[in-house]
Protein backbone atom coordinates (compact mmCIF):
# COMPACT_ATOMS: atom_id res chain seq x y z
CA UNK A 1 0.00 0.00 0.00
CA UNK A 2 1.19 3.55 -0.73
CA UNK A 3 1.84 6.02 2.08
CA UNK A 4 -1.07 8.19 0.91
CA UNK A 5 -4.64 6.79 1.23
CA UNK A 6 -5.98 9.13 -1.49
CA UNK A 7 -3.81 7.33 -4.06
CA UNK A 8 -4.79 3.78 -3.12
CA UNK A 9 -8.15 3.62 -4.97
CA UNK A 10 -6.39 4.45 -8.23
CA UNK A 11 -3.61 1.95 -7.56
CA UNK A 12 -6.23 -0.72 -6.79
CA UNK A 13 -8.19 0.07 -9.97
CA UNK A 14 -5.00 -0.01 -12.06
CA UNK A 15 -3.94 -3.31 -10.49
CA UNK A 16 -7.30 -4.95 -11.10
CA UNK A 17 -7.35 -3.98 -14.78
CA UNK A 18 -3.71 -4.94 -15.33
CA UNK A 19 -4.27 -8.37 -13.79
CA UNK A 20 -7.41 -8.80 -15.90
CA UNK A 21 -5.44 -7.98 -19.05
CA UNK A 22 -2.77 -10.48 -18.04
CA UNK A 23 -5.42 -13.16 -17.68
CA UNK A 24 -6.97 -12.24 -21.05
CA UNK A 25 -3.75 -12.50 -23.06
CA UNK A 26 -1.89 -15.34 -21.36
CA UNK A 27 -3.68 -18.08 -23.29
CA UNK A 28 -3.88 -16.34 -26.70
CA UNK A 29 -2.71 -18.24 -29.75
CA UNK A 30 -0.45 -16.38 -32.18
CA UNK A 31 -3.19 -15.39 -34.60
CA UNK A 32 -5.30 -13.78 -31.88
CA UNK A 33 -2.56 -11.26 -31.17
CA UNK A 34 -3.21 -9.77 -34.61
CA UNK A 35 -6.94 -9.29 -34.02
CA UNK A 36 -8.22 -5.79 -34.72
CA UNK A 37 -9.42 -3.64 -31.81
CA UNK A 38 -11.62 -0.55 -31.76
CA UNK A 39 -8.58 1.55 -30.84
CA UNK A 40 -7.81 3.11 -34.24
CA UNK A 41 -5.01 1.34 -36.07
CA UNK A 42 -4.12 -1.02 -33.23
CA UNK A 43 -4.28 -4.78 -32.92
CA UNK A 44 -4.44 -6.78 -29.68
CA UNK A 45 -0.63 -6.91 -29.72
CA UNK A 46 -0.44 -3.14 -30.26
CA UNK A 47 -2.70 -2.36 -27.30
CA UNK A 48 -0.66 -4.58 -25.00
CA UNK A 49 2.57 -3.07 -26.38
CA UNK A 50 1.22 0.42 -25.65
CA UNK A 51 0.47 -0.47 -22.04
CA UNK A 52 3.90 -2.05 -21.57
CA UNK A 53 5.60 0.97 -23.11
CA UNK A 54 3.82 3.52 -20.95
CA UNK A 55 4.51 1.64 -17.73
CA UNK A 56 8.17 1.23 -18.70
CA UNK A 57 8.48 4.97 -19.24
CA UNK A 58 6.91 5.64 -15.84
CA UNK A 59 9.45 3.21 -14.38
CA UNK A 60 12.18 5.39 -15.86
CA UNK A 61 13.32 3.00 -18.58
CA UNK A 62 14.89 4.70 -21.62
CA UNK A 63 12.67 5.10 -24.64
CA UNK A 64 13.50 2.88 -27.62
CA UNK A 65 15.56 4.41 -30.40
CA UNK A 66 13.25 3.64 -33.30
CA UNK A 67 12.18 5.29 -36.55
CA UNK A 68 8.52 4.94 -37.44
CA UNK A 69 7.40 3.97 -40.94
CA UNK A 70 5.90 6.86 -42.86
CA UNK A 71 2.67 5.08 -43.80
CA UNK A 72 1.02 4.70 -40.36
CA UNK A 73 -2.23 6.55 -41.06
CA UNK A 74 -3.36 6.99 -37.47
CA UNK A 75 -0.19 8.84 -36.44
CA UNK A 76 -1.25 12.45 -36.92
CA UNK A 77 0.57 14.53 -34.32
CA UNK A 78 3.41 14.51 -31.81
CA UNK A 79 1.35 12.81 -29.09
CA UNK A 80 0.34 9.89 -31.31
CA UNK A 81 3.89 9.69 -32.70
CA UNK A 82 5.26 9.46 -29.14
CA UNK A 83 2.80 6.65 -28.36
CA UNK A 84 3.44 4.76 -31.58
CA UNK A 85 7.17 4.24 -31.05
CA UNK A 86 6.58 1.88 -28.10
CA UNK A 87 3.98 0.03 -30.18
CA UNK A 88 5.82 -0.29 -33.47
CA UNK A 89 9.03 -1.51 -31.87
CA UNK A 90 7.11 -4.58 -30.58
CA UNK A 91 5.08 -5.36 -33.71
CA UNK A 92 7.12 -8.46 -34.52
CA UNK A 93 7.28 -9.84 -30.98
CA UNK A 94 5.79 -13.28 -30.45
CA UNK A 95 2.96 -14.02 -28.04
CA UNK A 96 5.27 -15.53 -25.40
CA UNK A 97 7.58 -12.51 -25.68
CA UNK A 98 4.61 -10.19 -25.16
CA UNK A 99 3.19 -12.02 -22.16
CA UNK A 100 6.54 -12.36 -20.42
CA UNK A 101 7.34 -8.66 -20.88
CA UNK A 102 3.87 -7.68 -19.70
CA UNK A 103 4.17 -9.82 -16.57
CA UNK A 104 7.63 -8.50 -15.77
CA UNK A 105 6.51 -4.90 -16.27
CA UNK A 106 3.45 -5.47 -14.07
CA UNK A 107 5.63 -6.87 -11.27
CA UNK A 108 8.09 -3.98 -11.46
CA UNK A 109 5.43 -1.27 -11.64
CA UNK A 110 3.32 -2.79 -8.84
CA UNK A 111 6.41 -2.82 -6.62
CA UNK A 112 7.11 0.80 -7.46
CA UNK A 113 3.54 1.80 -6.56
CA UNK A 114 3.60 -0.15 -3.29
CA UNK A 115 6.73 1.75 -2.27
CA UNK A 116 5.49 5.17 -3.42
CA UNK A 117 6.56 7.85 -0.91
CA UNK A 118 5.74 11.03 -2.80
CA UNK A 119 2.74 13.14 -1.85
CA UNK A 120 -0.44 13.15 -3.91
CA UNK A 121 0.37 16.72 -5.02
CA UNK A 122 3.93 15.97 -6.16
CA UNK A 123 4.57 16.96 -9.78
CA UNK A 124 5.51 13.90 -11.83
CA UNK A 125 5.88 12.95 -15.48
CA UNK A 126 2.82 11.66 -17.26
CA UNK A 127 2.49 10.06 -20.67
CA UNK A 128 -1.10 9.30 -21.63
CA UNK A 129 -3.83 9.72 -22.62
CA UNK A 130 -3.24 13.43 -23.15
CA UNK A 131 0.46 13.43 -24.01
CA UNK A 132 3.75 13.86 -22.11
CA UNK A 133 3.56 16.56 -19.44
CA UNK A 134 3.88 17.21 -15.71
CA UNK A 135 0.93 16.31 -13.50
CA UNK A 136 0.22 15.87 -9.79
CA UNK A 137 0.86 12.24 -8.84
CA UNK A 138 -2.79 11.69 -7.92
CA UNK A 139 -3.92 12.86 -11.36
CA UNK A 140 -1.30 10.70 -13.05
CA UNK A 141 -2.48 7.59 -11.22
CA UNK A 142 -6.11 8.38 -11.95
CA UNK A 143 -5.33 8.65 -15.66
CA UNK A 144 -3.35 5.39 -15.57
CA UNK A 145 -6.32 3.58 -14.00
CA UNK A 146 -8.57 5.16 -16.63
CA UNK A 147 -6.29 4.30 -19.54
CA UNK A 148 -5.74 0.65 -18.68
CA UNK A 149 -9.48 0.09 -18.07
CA UNK A 150 -10.32 1.58 -21.48
CA UNK A 151 -7.70 -0.66 -23.10
CA UNK A 152 -8.92 -3.67 -21.13
CA UNK A 153 -12.31 -3.09 -22.73
CA UNK A 154 -10.67 -2.73 -26.17
CA UNK A 155 -9.15 -6.17 -25.66
CA UNK A 156 -12.34 -7.72 -24.31
CA UNK A 157 -14.38 -6.58 -27.31
CA UNK A 158 -11.69 -7.73 -29.75
CA UNK A 159 -11.47 -11.14 -28.09
CA UNK A 160 -15.24 -11.42 -27.41
CA UNK A 161 -14.65 -11.80 -23.68
CA UNK A 162 -16.89 -9.18 -22.04
CA UNK A 163 -16.51 -8.29 -18.38
CA UNK A 164 -15.48 -5.76 -15.75
CA UNK A 165 -17.89 -3.08 -16.97
CA UNK A 166 -18.55 -2.32 -13.29
CA UNK A 167 -15.00 -2.72 -11.98
CA UNK A 168 -13.07 -0.09 -9.98
CA UNK A 169 -11.49 1.05 -13.24
CA UNK A 170 -14.96 1.62 -14.71
CA UNK A 171 -15.79 3.97 -11.82
CA UNK A 172 -12.60 5.93 -12.48
CA UNK A 173 -13.39 6.06 -16.20
CA UNK A 174 -16.86 7.42 -15.45
CA UNK A 175 -15.34 10.30 -13.47
CA UNK A 176 -12.83 11.12 -16.22
CA UNK A 177 -15.52 11.04 -18.90
CA UNK A 178 -17.87 13.22 -16.85
CA UNK A 179 -15.16 15.80 -16.25
CA UNK A 180 -14.96 16.29 -20.02
CA UNK A 181 -18.69 16.78 -20.58
CA UNK A 182 -18.88 20.59 -20.03
CA UNK A 183 -16.35 21.15 -22.83
CA UNK A 184 -18.13 18.67 -25.09
CA UNK A 185 -21.47 20.42 -24.70
CA UNK A 186 -20.62 24.11 -24.25
CA UNK A 187 -17.55 24.50 -26.45
CA UNK A 188 -17.30 21.66 -28.95
CA UNK A 189 -21.02 21.17 -29.65
CA UNK A 190 -21.74 24.90 -29.33
CA UNK A 191 -24.79 24.59 -27.07
CA UNK A 192 -26.50 27.98 -26.67
CA UNK A 193 -26.34 29.94 -23.39
CA UNK A 194 -28.89 29.21 -20.66
CA UNK A 195 -29.63 25.65 -21.73
CA UNK A 196 -29.19 22.19 -20.26
CA UNK A 197 -28.30 18.79 -21.72
CA UNK A 198 -29.12 15.65 -19.74
CA UNK A 199 -27.22 12.35 -19.94
CA UNK A 200 -29.16 9.32 -18.67
CA UNK A 201 -26.90 6.25 -18.51
CA UNK A 202 -28.09 2.77 -17.54
CA UNK A 203 -26.40 -0.56 -16.96
CA UNK A 204 -23.48 -1.67 -14.78
CA UNK A 205 -22.45 1.94 -14.13
CA UNK A 206 -25.66 3.94 -13.82
CA UNK A 207 -25.96 7.72 -13.50
CA UNK A 208 -27.81 10.82 -14.62
CA UNK A 209 -25.93 14.09 -15.10
CA UNK A 210 -26.92 17.52 -16.38
CA UNK A 211 -24.58 19.83 -18.22
CA UNK A 212 -25.71 23.44 -17.80
CA UNK A 213 -24.50 26.23 -20.05
CA UNK A 214 -24.62 29.65 -18.35
CA UNK A 215 -25.34 33.03 -19.91
CA UNK A 216 -21.65 33.42 -20.81
CA UNK A 217 -21.49 30.06 -22.60
CA UNK A 218 -19.56 28.25 -19.85
CA UNK A 219 -20.52 24.68 -19.05
CA UNK A 220 -20.75 22.84 -15.73
CA UNK A 221 -21.96 19.38 -14.78
CA UNK A 222 -24.02 18.29 -11.77
CA UNK A 223 -26.34 15.52 -10.66
CA UNK A 224 -29.48 17.60 -10.12
CA UNK A 225 -32.53 17.10 -12.30
CA UNK A 226 -33.17 19.62 -15.07
CA UNK A 227 -36.70 20.68 -15.95
CA UNK A 228 -37.17 21.09 -19.67
CA UNK A 229 -33.64 20.34 -20.93
CA UNK A 230 -32.77 21.25 -24.51
CA UNK A 231 -31.64 17.65 -25.10
CA UNK A 232 -31.77 14.36 -23.26
CA UNK A 233 -29.49 11.52 -24.36
CA UNK A 234 -30.12 8.04 -22.96
CA UNK A 235 -27.83 5.06 -23.52
CA UNK A 236 -26.23 2.11 -21.76
CA UNK A 237 -22.86 2.43 -20.01
CA UNK A 238 -20.87 0.40 -22.53
CA UNK A 239 -22.15 2.56 -25.39
CA UNK A 240 -21.38 5.72 -23.41
CA UNK A 241 -17.82 4.57 -22.70
CA UNK A 242 -17.19 3.57 -26.33
CA UNK A 243 -18.40 6.94 -27.59
CA UNK A 244 -16.55 8.93 -24.93
CA UNK A 245 -13.32 7.06 -25.62
CA UNK A 246 -13.64 7.63 -29.37
CA UNK A 247 -13.98 3.92 -30.10
CA UNK A 248 -17.11 4.10 -32.23
CA UNK A 249 -18.93 6.67 -34.36
CA UNK A 250 -22.41 7.80 -33.26
CA UNK A 251 -24.06 6.42 -36.41
CA UNK A 252 -22.68 2.95 -35.64
CA UNK A 253 -24.56 2.82 -32.31
CA UNK A 254 -27.61 4.88 -33.27
CA UNK A 255 -29.88 2.00 -32.25
CA UNK A 256 -28.43 2.12 -28.71
CA UNK A 257 -28.81 5.87 -28.17
CA UNK A 258 -32.17 7.54 -27.55
CA UNK A 259 -32.36 11.30 -28.01
CA UNK A 260 -35.12 13.72 -27.08
CA UNK A 261 -35.30 17.45 -27.78
CA UNK A 262 -33.26 19.59 -30.18
CA UNK A 263 -32.11 17.10 -32.82
CA UNK A 264 -29.37 19.33 -34.22
CA UNK A 265 -27.85 19.93 -30.79
CA UNK A 266 -28.10 16.21 -29.96
CA UNK A 267 -26.24 15.38 -33.17
CA UNK A 268 -23.56 17.99 -32.40
CA UNK A 269 -23.04 16.61 -28.89
CA UNK A 270 -22.71 13.05 -30.18
CA UNK A 271 -20.35 14.17 -32.94
CA UNK A 272 -17.99 15.70 -30.35
CA UNK A 273 -18.58 13.12 -27.61
CA UNK A 274 -15.05 11.71 -27.43
CA UNK A 275 -12.96 13.21 -24.63
CA UNK A 276 -9.76 11.28 -25.41
CA UNK A 277 -7.38 12.42 -28.18
* C-alpha geometry: globular
Give the low-pLDDT segments: none
Portion in strands: 5-15%
Q: What's the tally of helices?
A: 9
Largest beta-sheet characterization: 5 strands, mixed
Descriptive overview:
This protein is of the alpha+beta class. The protein folds into two domains: 5-161, Four Helix Bundle (Hemerythrin (Met), subunit A) (Up-down Bundle); 180-271, Nonspecific Lipid-transfer Protein, Chain A, CATH 3.30.1050.10. 45% of the residues lie in helices and 14% in strands. The protein has nine helices and seven strands. Strands 5-4-3-6-7 form a five-stranded mixed sheet. A two-stranded antiparallel ribbon has the order 1-2. The model has no long low-confidence stretch (mean pLDDT 93).
List the helices and strands and how they pair.
Layout: H1 8-26, H2 44-58, H3 78-88, H4 95-114, E1 123-126, E2 133-136, H5 137-159, H6 168-179, H7 181-188, E3 195-202, E4 207-213, E5 219-222, E6 231-236, H8 237-244, E7 257-261, H9 263-271
Parallel strand pairs: 3-6
Antiparallel strand pairs: 1-2, 3-4, 4-5, 6-7
Helix pairs in contact: 1-4, 1-5, 1-6, 2-3, 2-4, 2-5, 5-6
Pfam families: MDMPI_N (PF11716)
Organism: Streptomyces qinglanensis
InterPro entries: DinB/YfiT-like, Maleyloyr_isom, MDMPI_metal-binding
Features:
two-stranded antiparallel sheet, five-stranded mixed β-sheet, Four Helix Bundle (Hemerythrin (Met), subunit A), 277 residues, single chain, alpha+beta, 2 domains, 7 strands, Nonspecific Lipid-transfer Protein, Chain A
Amino acid sequence: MTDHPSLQPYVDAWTQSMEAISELVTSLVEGEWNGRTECPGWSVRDVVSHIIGVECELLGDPRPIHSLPRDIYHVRDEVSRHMEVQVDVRRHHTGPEMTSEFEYTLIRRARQLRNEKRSAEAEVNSVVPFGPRKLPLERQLMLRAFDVWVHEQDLRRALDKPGNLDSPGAQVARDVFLAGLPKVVAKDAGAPPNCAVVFDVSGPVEFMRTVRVDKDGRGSVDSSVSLGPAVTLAMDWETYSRLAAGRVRPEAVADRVKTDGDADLADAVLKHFAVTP
